[in-house]
Model the fold of this input.
Amino acid sequence: MSPISRNDCVSLLGCGWLGLPVAEKLITAGLHVRGSTTHASKLSVLSSLGIESLLMRIDPGTEEGWTPSEATARFFDSATMILGLPPQAALGEEHFTSQVETILARRGRSSFEHLVFISSTSVFGAKQGSVDETTLPKPDSEAGIILAKVEQRLVAAAGEQGFRLTIVRPGGLIGPGRHPGLFLAGRKNAKDPESPINLIHQMDCAEAVATLVRDTDGLATGESRTFNLVSDRHPTRREFYTRASQAVGVEAPEFSPQTEDSADKVVQSARIRTLMQFEFDDLLASMGAKT
Done:
């Protein structure tokens, strides 16, 4: 067996509901994926999917910040790293930012050259109207505030440390085990009936991330780029969640009236469509399929 080229290695921090399909797409494309987990019981699951599984944990409270060091050294020996850990609001802003700082502090000469950060469209406030990648985020949620600050920190770090940075901002994720018909089933006085949805299917999101790992044309060392990831159609919450509930045979939600304070955010994502086509671009039309 020939040795694995470092340029063909991708390290994935966060092998969860989204990370696993991303890993599978990268493996199908011929790349070698190293995936981390904090649970020893999950090592065999990752290995069975063709992922080089590594047991490791980010622990900003310790001197080294990582455990164990052997797995950490191997994890950082990849040309690309995907950071797919969501902020845990219950642990506060400091915990997540400390994790990110630990990653940046550990990066050395032989570490990743391209960082892909999984952010969220929550960096935009609910009342920001039509937004795209050029729009200045004005988050109004705790998670959105944390992510917006981390995005800014990583952009600065890319320039300081000399790595390429790709920020991806998925909308609300739906897919296997997350059918939208169950999100608001039977709810009374659900908010924002006429507000637009900003969602993306798991498979489209995974394909977008895998595409951006492989396609870095025009992205120079120290530079950053950002992609919003949402389906192209934005039906109202009333229309979408009523149809979604019907698709799985559950009670549809009842909405309270639209108010002046209701959300009006519409996330535009034309940039990613220059690189790929979405399979689930009209979520109403594909309701019930593969969700």
